[in-house]
Amino acid sequence: MSTPVRARVEIEGVVQGVGFRPFVYRLAARHGLVGWVRNSPGGVVLEVEGAAEELDRFIQALPAEAPPLADISSFRRSPLPPLGEASFLILSSEGGDNRIQIAPDGDVCGECLTELFTPSNRRHRYPFITCTNCGPRYSIITGIPYDRSQTTMAGFPLCAACRIEYDDPSDRRFHAQPIACPDCGPRVRLLDGDGRPLSAAGDDSVRGAVARLREGRILAVKGLGGYHLAADPFNDATVGTLRSRKHRDEKPFALMSPDLEAVRQLARCDGLEARLLAGVERPIVLLPRRSGTGLSPLVAPCNRYLGMMLPSTPLHHLLLQDDFRALIMTSGNVSGEPIIHLDDEAMAKLAGVADCFLTHDREVSNRSDDSVIRVFLGNPIFLRRSRGYVPRGVTLPSSQASVLAVGGELKNAICLTRGDRAYLSQHIGDLKNDATQRSFAETTSRLAGFLEIVPEVVAHDLHPDYLSTRFAEEFGSARKVGVQHHHAHMASCMAENRLEGEVIGVIFDGTGFGTDGTSWGGEFLVGSYRSFLRRGRLREVRLPGGDAAAREPYRMALSYLHDSRGNRMLEQALPCLERVGPRERKLFTAMLGRGINSPLTTSCGRLFDAVAALLGIRFVNSYEGQAAIELEGVAEGAASSGCYPYAVTDADGCYTLDLRPMIEAIVGDLAVGEPKDVVARRFHDTLAAAAADVCVEIRRVSGTDRVVLSGGVFQNKLLTSALHGQLTARSFRVFTHRLVPPNDGGLALGQAVVAGQRERIT
Ligand code: ZN
Ligand code: ZN
Ligand code: FE
Q1: CB 712 within 8 A of CB 625
Q2: Which pTM does this prediction carry?
């Protein structure tokens, strides 16, 4: 036998509270190695000793076979002289500064799932079954370090049987903080709208809930991050009732299916989509829907996609298994407010919506909505990054000052940084009411507390009226740095791709406050984290009625028509004009002609609204982004068939993309009865070709050939793919989002990097 060698390995990342030490223990045993492992302030440290080839294999297996909830961010190996120990030990933690990373919530692992459905197992049909490899983490923590006493399991002392598992290093439940069993853990209860029990606590409640769902009742059910409303999606009357009670006219409802096979009966799902669905994070994935599935048309009206997910808790498995191909699982909230996570609040606010409540006595400490993902260009794109991904860090290109970035106004999420790691919070929502503002303040202080980050710098948007901006101004003694909205989008995409130096940023967005005080949103920027120049933009048009223009796309159709044909805008017979009465015609003519209550904007989101309304697809939105989503859906029905004309003009180093020729051509196409899907597709292709042309002009001046695509419009698969293709054909290197959303949900990451780099201590 060769002489033994010894090595020390230091691992950082999410490696505590995820079964990492028992994993190391078992792995060392498998390779016949001695030594020890323990938690360290930064993660896990271990020393191993044995035959050189076994030690190498052990070290290769460490990252390759790591437990499902672990996320290794750094790994260092150094040689040591052999000591000749006799065994491998799990040592207790070192004291001191405990900068561990908290794991996100995970689904149920395969082993726990098998036990859940094994009649002889002591946790048979027990909805809180979990182990070191699975289950709740972030949602149940109340403080740090991560320990049962600092979770919402604190009130459930372990019974003798659970204690034995918890103390045994060879057990799957060794030091798994949230473990429990029917003897010592939380219990589910089924309650009516007044909080009265409908059946005995425990499994009778689960079976009672299934029976009521079958009868077409609406059930509020407590999940990992808060309450969902569950209902049978094949029952028209039930879905209709849910829509009217929730005051939600058309926004699609997400569905949960028991397994991938059931998903595939309702929607098409490729390999990557299946892996995302079945991953521990359990996000909602948008999938092209099948026809003839029997789903109520009210589940996702006017939408070619279904938002589908797999169960994220044992309770979901118990509800769905054997009984349903799918259930509607939509956030339990009052429209526009955060997902409800407290029991009292659920009973009070959902009483008129849900017929009954399947609840339990394990509290949700940190609420989080479901994450939403769409796959394209072979990558996942986040539409919402929340449960399952938070608080996982994003590695920045370099170390920087500690920053709190407060995000934007809509789809708010905040970001905290330490060193070269950035932590984006869960989705907080639109900061429009007291409930979201409270959630914003609470999430900010809690996340900073869990991560032990005291920010030196607070980054905020330039918009003076954003509530997040006002919050930043009042935030303690930290230095305040204002970051332009679209610069933040650009920096967000740069940061997750770890780009340094200068890039071209094509930022197609709703609206954001520009450095000149006007509303921007169709921007071509050139710059770095520290600074940028506006090198191009869409031609400005008016927003008739200001904010109302975003809710009512037909206003934007009028604005674009007015821009290209002035007061002749009303002459053509167009569907979007038929709905405008004589009085409104006068009003719009005056508003647009004289600019009354009609600020100028370069918003690309509003361009999509205008075209959707011109085509008669959507005149008034019942939820944010509806017109653009439906326009893309229509365009997907046609193949590419050329582009419309457009013009690019240059003034003072800033190119203007003038789409008036395109608007005229679209009106012409509609007049001769060209099919809507062909027109919609041609519009997407035109915008992509035109944007690529502007990038070519900018490259000629700046010499930069790297392009980042960011802003809410890049949730659009068709446009992103077309522009990506156009740019790569012109030899650009193109970067898109994969880790954070292109919409305002990813804004805080960009704000944090811009501010951190500007305030960098050098
Ligand atoms: Zn498990
Ligand atoms: Zn127990
Ligand atoms: Fe934005």
Answers
A1: yes
A2: 0.94
